[in-house]
Amino acid sequence: MADSLRRVAILGGMRIPFARSNTAYVDFTNLGMLTAALTALVDGFGLRGQRIGEVAAGAVIKHTRDAGMAREATLGCGLHPHTPAYDVQRACGTSLTALVQIAHRISRGEIECGIAGGTDSASDLPITYGRKLQQAVLESARGRSAGERIKPWLLSMGEHTELMAKEWGIGRREQDEFANASHVKAAAAWKEGFFDDLVVPFGGLKIDNNLRADSTVEKLGRLQPSFDRSAAGTLTAGNSTPLTDGASSVLVASEDWAKQRGLPVHAYLTCSAVAAVDFVGTAGPREGLLMAPTYAVPDMLDRMGITLQDFDLYEIHEAFAAQVLCTLKAWESEEYCRTRLGRRAALGPIDRAKLNVKGSSLAAGHPFAATGTRIVATLAKQLAQRGSGRGLVSVCTAGGMGVTAILER
User: Fold this and answer.
1) Nearest Cα to 157, choosing from 348, 8, 20, 320?
2) Alpha-carbon distance 91 to 58, whole Å?
3) Residue 360 within any structural domain of the chain
4) C-beta of residue 390 within 8 angstroms of C-beta of residue 406
5) 180: Cβ contacts below 8 Å, ≥ 6 apart
6) Dist. CA 263–CA 94, nearest whole Å
7) Spatial contact of 235 and 228, defined as CB atoms under 8 Å apart
8) What is the pTM of this model?
9) For residues 262-281, b (16+ Cβ closer than 10 Å) or e, as one string?
């Protein structure tokens, strides 16, 4: 074991295009998609036939046949069969959690390199899981609008986020503007070729098929609320992430391992944190389901001795436009930061021009377990292009948790 902790390098990532459920990937499995993402990474970094330290990956929606999915994908992606692998699951924070776990082993000198990833299919559902899931599938299939089809799956989370939006005074127009900006920025990034070396064609797709390059606030404004059907409802299928299929992966390593192979370092993982909130209200006032990153981020700031404004880029997962906006508003609230976070003052506002500058989940889609490593690969490449800087990764998850990290170059 190393006498001191080593720096952990992010060398790059690879994913397949993300697809709205029941479209391009309706005939593909979690294993097939994850294997494709890992194969692209293995071939892209010349790792075919090599044994690496470990592969950690997972899925949120899993069949019983996927119990050893990470290992099976590792055996099928071209790595040496002596490469160990294991499955991880922390809802929407799955692949970011996997990456942090691999990074910890590298930093302690236990392994030299590893791959983290995630995959999810909302098209290949484990119907045998029980009657409640069967009913959700049937209700979704009967839905005539996008909102009706998504409601059975995101009902609980969507209702919770509606409550958050009302609590923080986040209006419909503000959410639609945020969602539209995600599509506009993602479309520009695709057009400029930013994703060319991060995404490999798969299943007939070359780009994410949820992306709406012609999105406008006016078009989004015509959609009906999905969760609160009254005049007070603000969340729609347009400002909420759609059910999505896809997979992503990231290669991390020690500096020495990268240097020996002539692989450039995009960024370094320098800090991470996990937090949870009491969204049920069992130990005090009920907290917003997706507000856990508001706790996790200041934990990192304190350990790093920096402020919320000391970032060049912010990558905040867009489960819902409202969830991102509630998080930002909470950090700006002196009362919230004092009573909930135990701080003397508000964390303050961020420069919105630095937020999700290549678009994020509202545009790309959100295959639950694949989002974390998608975000890390996107942020690491941006830092590499800049030549220096610091970036924040923040992912809220089902179950009232948040997984966060800091990348630096």
Assistant:
1) 320
2) 9
3) yes
4) yes
5) 215, 216, 217, 220
6) 26
7) yes
8) 0.93
9) ebebbbbbbbbbbbebebee
**pLDDT at residue 230, as a whole number:** 87
> Phi first, then psi: what are they for 88, rounded to 5°?
-130, 150
Give pairs for 23-29: CB < 8 Å, separation 24+. 23/123, 23/209, 23/245, 24/203, 24/204, 24/205, 24/209, 24/245, 25/121, 25/123, 25/203, 25/245, 25/246, 26/123, 26/124, 28/121, 28/123, 28/124, 28/203, 28/245, 29/63, 29/66, 29/121, 29/124
Alpha helical stretches, state H, 213-292: 217-221, 255-260
Q: What range does the domain containing 283 cover? A: 269-408
Cβ 346 vs Cβ 337: under 8 Å: yes
Among the listed residues 344, 342, 349, the one whose alpha carbon sits nearest the alpha carbon of residue 309: 349
Is residue 171 a part of any domain in this protein? no
**Domain-embedded: residue 335:** yes
Which residues of the chain, if any, have pLDDT below 50?
1, 129, 153-155
- Tell me what pLDDT residue 138 has: 61
Which pLDDT does position 143 carry in this prediction?
A: 64
pLDDT at site 173:
97
- CA atoms of 153 and 140, how far apart (whole Å): 8
Interatomic CA distance for residues 98 and 178, integer angstroms: 29
pLDDT of res. 231: 85
Q: For the chain, how many structural domains are there in total?
A: 1
**Confidence (pLDDT) at 379:** 98
Q: Are 291 and 277 in contact (CB under 8 A)?
A: yes
Q: In CATH, what number is assigned to the domain containing residue 404?
A: 3.40.47.10
Provide CB contacts within 8 A for 65, sequence distance 6+: none
**Alpha carbon 243 to chain centroid, angstroms:** 13
Q: Could you list the active site residues?
A: 92, 366, 396
Give the tokens for residue 143.
């839905």
Q: Are 211 and 135 in contact (CB under 8 A)?
A: no
Residue 223 DSSP one-character state: S
Selection from 389, 84, 107, 78 nearest residue 272 by Cα: 107
pLDDT of residue 349: 98
Rounded to a whole number of angstroms, the distance between the first and last alpha carbons of the chain is 25
* Residue whose token pair is 């639609």: 176
DSSP 109: T
